[in-house]
Amino acid sequence: QVQLVESGGGLVQAGDSLRLVCAASGRTFSAYGMGWFRQAPGKEREFVAAINWSAIGTAYADSVKGRFTISRDNVKNTVYLQMNSLKPEDTAVYYCAQRRNPRNWAPRGDPDEYAYWGQGTQVTVSS
């Protein structure tokens, strides 16, 4: 059974930084692409960032490009989201997710490509 556990959220001020961490277990982590998504109150879930299984390929939503960085440690079975220059519009529950199929080279932002999801961690950015 795959488990994804996010941590690192919190309440920060605009311009601050946070690093989200997602610890994975249950199948060979290094074989699967990972993604971060977020959902703000009253809004649809949206793609934030993705990384492929080998960490060579990454993809970002335009709204976070240049501010957020996704990375992974295939020894620690962990994926990270470094968030810099946070804005109030970044306020949301952030979820990590694991791709359905192994060894996909292209990182994807389509949530249907992801089979497993964490419980989420709240990020609140005050102005």
Form type: globular
The secondary-structure class comes to mainly beta
Rounded radius of gyration (Å): 13 Å
Average pLDDT metric:
96
| Count of separate DSSP helical elements | 0
Spatial separation of the terminal alpha carbons: 40 Å
> Could you list the spans in which at least 5 consecutive residues all have pLDDT below 50?
none
N to C succession of SSEs? EEEEEEEEEEE
Fraction in beta strands: over 45%
Q: Give the strand tally.
A: 11
Percentage of residues in helical conformation: under 10%
The largest sheet, given as strand count, sense and whether it forms a barrel, is: 7 strands, mixed
Describe it for me?
This protein has no helices and eleven strands. By secondary structure, the chain is an all-beta fold. The radius of gyration is 13 Å and the shape is globular. The model has no long low-confidence stretch (mean pLDDT 96).
Descriptors:
mainly beta; 127 residues
Give a brief description.
This protein is mainly beta. Helices cover 0% and strands 49% of the residues.
Give the arrangement of secondary structure elements.
Elements: E1 3-7, E2 10-13, E3 18-25, E4 34-39, E5 46-51, E6 58-60, E7 68-73, E8 78-83, E9 92-99, E10 114-117, E11 121-126
Parallel strand pairs: 2-11
Antiparallel strand pairs: 1-3, 3-8, 4-5, 4-9, 5-6, 7-8, 9-10, 9-11
